[in-house]
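User: My collaborator sent over this chain with a note saying "see what the structure looks like." That's all I know about it. Can you take a look?
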Amino acid sequence: MGRKNLRIFFLPKYSPELNIIEILWRFIKYHWLEVDAYFSWENLVRSVEYVLLNFGEEYIINFT
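Assistant: Without extra context I'll predict from the sequence alone. Here is the result:
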């Protein structure tokens, strides 16, 4: 059987910095949600939905 040029990288069991969704949640939680989003469950849901619906336009993550 020939070589497949396959490289195996062992990652730590928990590595949120390598998971794109974790980066998005960190921005939502620490940068984009206002304090009043945490006053009630309804406010939180409404605020997170707003951010997700406007991601890419009003809310942008710059990886540079």
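A starting point for your reply to your collaborator: The first helix runs from residue 20 to 32.
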